[in-house]
């Protein structure tokens, strides 16, 4: 759990541009988004712990904490979802995340929804190095590849291949612009 939180902290600092030492760095960890991330990691830890009596005690602590955090922050990150190291929520709230698995270095903005479509029992699967801009929605049984950007307010209802970006409503797949070497 703590190893994941350290990676989450590094990702959070790199995506918010607060790599400098000092007060701004400290304040980035006294935020609603960091609280929601910590509660999610605690929920995963509670579900994965070995002895059943300890698991029960931890889950009894987790569920009220989850609902209080969800109410205070407007961020709901379901403990069912397996999120790799380097998870960061940028923004202020309105985030709902329920996926089967999410890879490493996953960053989301405000107003992002990742989940299933009503009546569907399958959840999205998201790869590594995915950035979801504010307002984007990923719904249904979709697979998002590695190194993908989901642009703001896009609605993703189909699979997105590696090294691309999704734009629009409904989302269209575009090639990511290659960096020009000088």
TrEMBL record:
<keyword id="KW-0012">Acyltransferase</keyword>
<protein>
    <recommendedName>
        <fullName>Serine acetyltransferase</fullName>
        <ecNumber>2.3.1.30</ecNumber>
    </recommendedName>
</protein>
<keyword id="KW-0808">Transferase</keyword>
<dbReference type="InterPro" id="IPR045304">
    <property type="entry name" value="LbH_SAT"/>
</dbReference>
<dbReference type="GO" id="GO:0006535">
    <property type="term" value="P:cysteine biosynthetic process from serine"/>
</dbReference>
<dbReference type="GO" id="GO:0009001">
    <property type="term" value="F:serine O-acetyltransferase activity"/>
</dbReference>
<dbReference type="InterPro" id="IPR005881">
    <property type="entry name" value="Ser_O-AcTrfase"/>
</dbReference>
<dbReference type="GO" id="GO:0005737">
    <property type="term" value="C:cytoplasm"/>
</dbReference>
<dbReference type="InterPro" id="IPR011004">
    <property type="entry name" value="Trimer_LpxA-like_sf"/>
</dbReference>
<comment type="similarity">
    <text>Belongs to the transferase hexapeptide repeat family.</text>
</comment>
<dbReference type="InterPro" id="IPR001451">
    <property type="entry name" value="Hexapep"/>
</dbReference>
<dbReference type="Pfam" id="PF00132">
    <property type="entry name" value="Hexapep"/>
</dbReference>
């Amino acid at each position: 759990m703590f190893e994941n939180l350290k990676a989450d902290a590094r990702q959070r600092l790199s995506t918010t541009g607060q790599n400098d030492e000092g007060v701004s760095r400290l304040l980035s960890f006294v935020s609603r988004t960091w609280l929601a991330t910590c509660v999610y990691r605690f929920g995963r830890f509670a579900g994965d712990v070995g002895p059943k009596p300890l698991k029960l005690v931890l889950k009894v602590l987790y569920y009220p904490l989850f609902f209080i955090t969800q109410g205070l922050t407007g961020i709901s990150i379901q403990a069912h979802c397996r999120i790799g190291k380097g998870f960061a929520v940028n923004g202020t709230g309105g985030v709902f995340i329920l996926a089967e698995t999410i890879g490493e270095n996953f960053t989301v903005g405000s107003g992002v929804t990742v989940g299933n479509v009503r009546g569907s029992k399958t959840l999205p699967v998201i790869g590594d190095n995915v950035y979801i801009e504010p307002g984007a929605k990923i719904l249904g049984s979709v697979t998002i590849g590695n190194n993908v950007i989901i642009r703001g307010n896009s609605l993703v209802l189909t699979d997105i291949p590696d090294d691309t970006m999704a734009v629009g409503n409904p989302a269209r797949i575009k090639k990511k612009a290659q960096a020009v070497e000088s």
